[in-house]
Amino acid sequence: MKKRVFALVLALCLVLSLPVYALESSSFSGGKLSGLTMQEDGSMLVTDVYNKVIWRVADGKASRFAGVIPVAGITGEPGGVYRNGAVDEAYFMEPWGIAPFLEGYAVTDGDMIRYIANGRVMTLAGSDKAGNKDGSAKEATFDHPTGIAAAPDGSLYVADTGNGTIRHITKSGEVTTITRNLNAPTGVCWYEGVLYVAETGRCRILKVTTGGGVHVIAGVSTPAEDNGEFYGGYVDAAPDKAKFDHPQGVAVGSDGTIYVADTGNRAVRAIGDKRVYTVLRSTTSAITPASPRGLLVSGETLYLADAFAGTLTDLSIAQKRYSDVAANAWYADGVNTATRYGIVSGLGDTFQPDKLMDRAMFVSMLSHMHQLADGTVIIDGDATFKDVAADAPYAAAVRWAADNEIVRGNGDDTFAPDRGISRQELAALLYRYAQSQGLNVSGLSSTIRNFKDGDQVSDWAMESMSWACTQHILNGDDQHNLNPRGPATRAQALTMLLNFMENYGI
């Protein structure tokens, strides 16, 4: 996945493993980026809640678009101030979200909504005191609004975080509340008649209709001991089983995929293809994303503003295509899905669907599927084999599989990582994996006898093959043969793995 980082803190250049471009700002220090929007010329406007300014980012360089960095307070952080005026003289309290509005941009700022247009910063709505009042822009009050999104009709939707509401601001400045009783909503995004909301407090992603209807798209809320608080989690699964950790941003791609800044998990997640999966997560070798917050999709690029790392990252969200996978191939959808989920990555620009699957490749795929279901899992173990080097790319997966009794050696302390794997061996590995995870493997039938070559199934594989056929994880060919002892191709092995995932809701 292509990614590029524009660092807003020069010190990060020494530790990031991603390409870094220093932004021009002689006085910049310690930025905490939050909201972002794109201008017509392709440059980005990014809010900075630490330095209390709006940055313009173009060609990897930043300059102040609006606001003055205030004098640092006792804690060292610049102190916020409400002050209108020319863009190079005005002050912000805590600029969080930004969206196009009328001839300029609306910014959520402390307890106000500010407006930048014609070279000046003005107050659009709210006051310097928190409140919860609808009405005209002059009368309305807010309590720490954060996310803000523009609708096609020119109006605004605001996540009024402190009040737990979603507010609507018309072009004429009339403020109304469209839904209440949310738990700390933050990120919002308008897409095709629906407002998508990151409900941070309950660790969920919602969609809110213009009539105020609220529907949970994804995320499981687990109440904490303290009343009104909820635990987060990290589970990639079907939307009604997936878990987030206090997400703060949301954006929608042109294909309807919903991207989530999963702030507590230091990850970018996606909701699509009837499941939640991980797009990007920080590792020990990279600190981005550290505290993802603002998201914006433009074409096939996703932009990410990070509040802790002080970085603006862009990454390609284009679906990877393989030169040897025809669009109408029977395995094409499966290959595309598995690539999107990170189960497979292909071999360069090719997938080589007819290449024989070996033991190491399949165990690696199985470990990726396991980690897809629970992002907190660390794939590794203590088992050793004479023919598996400790630093081999598949070594950790083999150790994990052996420790969980998914794979077994050959009786001579070897694993034979390069040996081809048969269809009945694939069934056995998946069966043992299901057992290791406590999944239901009961209800076996004698469907093997219905296949022409059912008598070719080895005795040791009879139970796992019966299970695989009963659950439709393994299906026969057009001639109604199982070919149990025949070598499996990469396309066949991947199909069995995806059938397993669908059957068990992984």
Descriptive report:
With 506 residues, the protein is an alpha+beta fold. 14% of the residues lie in helices and 29% in strands. The protein is built from six helices and 28 strands. The strands form seven sheets. It has a five-stranded mixed β-sheet with strand order 2-1-28-27-26, with no helix packed on it. It has a five-stranded antiparallel β-sheet with strand order 7-11-10-9-8, with no helix packed on it. It has a four-stranded antiparallel β-sheet with strand order 3-4-5-6, with no helix packed on it. β16 and β17 form a beta hairpin. α2 packs across α3. The longest helix has 15 residues.
Write a brief caption for the model.
With 506 residues, the protein is α+β, with helices and mostly antiparallel strands. It is 14% helix and 29% strand.
- The overall average pLDDT, rounded, is 88
Measured between the Cα atoms of the first and last residue, the distance is 23 Å
Question: Helix segment count?
Answer: 6
Radius of gyration, taken over Cα atoms and rounded to an integer in Å: 26 Å
Shape: elongated
Q: Main sheet, how many strands, which sense, barrel? A: 5 strands, mixed
Number of DSSP strand runs: 28
Helix content: 10-25%
Structural class: alpha+beta
Strand order of the largest sheet: 2-1-28-27-26
**What is the strand content?**
25-35%
Low-confidence parts lasting 5 or more residues at pLDDT below 50? 6-28
